[in-house]
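User: Sorry, what's this?
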Amino acid sequence: MPKMPKLESEKTGTRLRRLIDMALGDTRNHYPCYLPGKKGFLSNFILKRFFSGIKVNKDQISHVRNIRKDAIIVYVTKYKSYFGYLFSHTRYREDNLPFPEIGFDYKVFIWQPVLQIIRILIAHIDYFFRNFAFSDPYTSGYFREELINGRTALLSLVDKKGFYRRFVKAKGDPIQYLIEMQQSIDRPIYLIPQLMFFGKEPSRSIPSIVDIFFGSGERPGIIRRLVTLFRKPDTVFAEISEPVSLKSFLELKENQGLSIESQSFDLRRQLLLQINRHRQSIIGPILKSQVELKEAILTNDRLRGFLKSYSKNKKIPIQKVYKKANSYLDEIAAKYNIVIIKIAEVVLRWIFNTMFEGITVNDTMFNRIKSMSQKGPLILIPCHRSHIDYLVLSYLLYKNNMPCPHVAAGKNLSFWPIGPIFRGTGAFFIRRTFRGALLYSRVFSEYIHRLLEEGFNIEFFIEGGRSRTGKMILPKLGLLSILLNAYKNKACEDMIFVPIYIGYDRVLEESSYLNELEGGQKKPESLLQVLKARKFLERKYGRVYLKFHEPISLREVLSQDGTSLEDMTSKERNALCRNLGHRMINAINNVSVVTPHGVVASALLNTSKKRFSYEHLMFRIETYMAHLFSQKVALSDTLLMNQANAVDHVLDSYVQRKFIGRIPGEKGNQSPDTQFTVNEGKRLNLEYYKNNCVAHFVPAAFTSLAILEKDAFQFSASDLHAAYTFFQDFFKYEFAYDIEKTAEYYVRKSIKVFIDDAILMPHPTMPDTYNLTSAGFRKLKCFTCFLKTYFESYWIVLHFYMKYPQNSIKPKERLKKNEAMGNRMYKNREIERKEALSKINFQNAVDFFTTHGVKGSDNKEKIEFYYDTIRRYLDHLNL
């Protein structure tokens, strides 16, 4: 009889075990860290709706898509967040990306299917009663098995309970677990950091009341998250950072001799650093109050030592020196204000939509720059054609989830109310010259050092001011030198230079530039000018073009040369600064966008006929376009889509603006016989647009003139090198060129293009020898005409030196004399082009001649040499 209850008990246990096995299926590894992709209809519906408004950077998705198909993927977040886990699980699944179903140290119940919840409870109860302990997915091999079977996971780096678990209770660390797993398998494990943003406001050193009660912008509480998501869903977005290959990390030499624990510490630090830098590249560094900023700058040891020395040398009380330094900092410093930036973004969006037809950007390179910004502060170096430049660049960066840079602005723009507004958006103000202002110069340098140290991006115009001629101005190296000195003093680990082309179909300041080129005085910026600027909103100015060059890492430049700034002499640092400056100018020229306005203006001005046909004009345009295509130059969308329509549209625009006349005058009625004339009074306007693209034609123009000078239909490439070198030197104040490339390089490159366009034919038997074709002669003339304006400007200035002895005319009067002489020579038809009467061309010619020994009529030998040379080349250009 006693055996009966025992037997019944065994049967009951067997039945219960069978039921448990049936409920659990093939495995007992059921954990709440697993959230299946196939959930209940209601859960899927709610989560999709909840996360649908959050933006994900589409270009960054390629980081995930490009990972090897057999790789194990683990997403990484900084803070533990169920919101972030559910977001990535839901949205990545919708985007057909690997989505996390496994959450290291996460426990999700509410969104699980009911059957899954039951299985989890049964599995844990069953395990507890059999082992008197709770099941651990680390020790059970669950994580390893699921990851090898193709599941994607997510882990968080910073979690209070996780820290206690790892360091106090010495239990599972997901980073260490993955390292051990990677060492035992061949398949690569990739860690993909991801970030969630609930706005673009930078963090502040002193938290606000809202931050204290509802969490910071970086780590908002649940109430702040929900309020932001429902009230301002467009401000919530996610970013995916560059994947980290765990296999590559372990193969690094410095990691191979470390223990697994040390490797896990280093990897965790690397991931946190990458996430923090990525976040900073979006919202910028922590904002400090003006008082904090001043104290950090004015009390650092470098500046204090200088101030004491300055006080002693100048015999000025130290307190007065402190007061002066403090006032200089007030004069210089930006007052970055996110509220002003948000208001400015709305206003600028309206202005740009009103004035322009759109903004064209090379998105691929822009995303590359966003990625590079995580390695060090960006030094943004755009060309400077208009006051719109710094507005459109800051607007574009902010709109694309990057912080507005600190912009070096001329002190002339610090007037009320523009000055305070610009300071609020990140502008800091700089004097035109530091001459005689030793204390100001040092305070300014320390301010730049602090910006770099904090991690702010800096924007400055290497040309110094706006180009009045439409072409790049040679670099001004003062601020670049200050940046290099800050890097030498360890202000940042790296400095990323970003040359940027900003161009316009039509520039706003066209009329004021024309006035200045003709000798008028530049009007100072004022509130009245701002009020008058309203008239610009009544016109359309075409498109804006932003083209980013490949970013240049200063650390990589120095490592390639095998040197450092600390080891360089002062002379070597100056040479580096000069080379970098020219490299920036050339980089901007190389990515400049050619518009139909520039090509048509070039063709109009480069014809010597007073009246010419549409067919004649199109021959020149097609010659220039063939050259641009062969050089793979960036062209505007209108030229790429329909060249003929773009040209006709520009001709209509130039006729309407009275730059040219058309006979007959019907709009859009171009035929081969349609005749055009250029309005002599508007040639300088056209010259501006021609100069927008002139850099792409300068090597061809130099080479063409060197060929024509030979006055033979057969020549060798080596015959052209001396002439090309002369042109580079003669026009060194007009055109920048890559000093690392020789004249031979440019000649051979141009010859190759000329062969492709049937201008030249290689000699069948004689190496390095070429024949000029009959059609080629006419095309070479099309290129040489780009130089005629400059030769005539220099011809005028040379006549001035022929007439006046050295020091007989004061420098301030010299340009006026040049202008008067130029006007007289133009009226006497000694020169043909009115655009040669350019104040800026005259100044460049003066700079050239004075540095080459021509300072007055006494320098007869030098004057005679240049007289004969210019006359000879003008004869070729006038043929």
Notes: The chain has four domains: 13-198+236-283, 290-591, 596-684, 697-879. Residues 133 and 411 are 72 Å apart (CA to CA). Confidence is low (pLDDT under 50) at residues 526-531.
